[in-house]
Every structure is written in C-alpha cells, then in structure tokens.
Amino acid sequence: xxxxxxxxxxxxxxxxxxxxxxxxxxxxxxxxxxxxxxxxxxxxxxxxxxxxxxxxxxxxxxxxxxxxxxxxxxxxxxxxxxxxxxxxxxxxxxxxxxxxxxxxxxxxxxxxxxxxxxxxxxxxxxxxxxxxxxxxxxxxxxxxxxxxxxxxxxxxxxxxxxxxxxxxxxxxxxxxxxxxxxxxxxxxxxxxxxxxxxxxxxxxxxxxxxxxxxxxxxxxxxxxxxxxxxxxxx
Length: 234
What we know:
Distance between the termini: 51 Å
Strand content: under 5%
C-alpha cells in the first residue's frame, strides 16, 4: 500500500512544484521508479518475515508445526494488483501522448469511436487522454477509500468514511453516465450532498451511540476473583 501512497504523493509534488512539464514527469522514469520501489518494499517485507521466522524457530520446535510460507499465489496476486493500481494516476501517460492522442504502439480496439459522442467529445471530455486521467484518478480514490473503510472494522470513525466513499462514488457515476456538463457536476450541489450525508451519518451515529450503557463493566465486575484480589490488596 506504500506503493500507491508514494505514487499519489509524487504526483501531488509534481503539481505543487510545477514540474508537470519537466523530466520529473517522464512516464519511463515513473514506471521504473514504481518497479524499483515495489522491489524494495517486497525485499523489506521478505527480509523482516524471514527474520521473524528465525526468531520463532525455538517456539515451533517446541510446539510443532511448519512455518507459514512467506509468499503464496494469493499474496503475489494481491501485490501485483496493488502495483498495477499504483500506476492509475499516470496510466494516461503510458498509452497517450500530450497533444497527439493515443500512441502508435497501442492497438486500435475501437474504444475511442465507441466512447465518442455526437458533439465530438469523448464521454463529455475534450480528449481520450483527459477522460483516462479523470476516470482513473477517481477510481484510484474510490478503491483506496473502500479499502480503508473495509480495514477500519470496529474503529469508531468507520461510519464517517462513508462520506468520502460516497463522494468518490458520485464522481465516478457522473463520469460514467456522461453528466459532467450538467448541474449534477456543479460544486455547490456536490458540497450540499456531502454536507447532508455527513449530517445524516453523524445523527445516526449519535443516536446509535446513545443506546450504549453509560458505564462499561470493568474486568473486576465480570471476573469475581479479580474483585476479591482487589479487596484483599486494599
């Protein structure tokens, strides 16, 4: 996941430092950088897991059982999927060229023709490159928010992750259903929707939290011997 985070932070750096039109934004550099960082992160993970296995060798010899494999087909598939996701913010640079369109080596599958509208735009965007950039950045955000929401599990802030999750899903819907030039894509409407969604989630959380007991039972209330030991210590 650090690979995706690094990719996002690097592109924010390019925008803030006004380096989008310099060699720092070269697609080959970013691809090789992604590959290099991926190998470094994998190496650190593998080394730390090997070290942990060696430290637990004595425990395994006592209790029995073979050590769990560090890598598996499932893990490798997940790592490759995350690595592929990390190139989403600059995938448009891979298959298109600024001001020129789709690169020559990309096979013509007829996607541009299918996505073109009668007004000459590509699903409401000025070019296929801009469509790819906007769509994949929003998809990148949607997957990250969804992953955080799933991983939050019993965290107290989990319900409020539905606000950015719903916002990114709305942005994707506007693109997919070609509503970018309609009122549905106006910032005031989207801000109002986020505000309403946040208030509804906050109210729901407040009233649900009000149903909880005012005082949670302590361990001394549940386990008698602990209470006896505590009285004895007094």
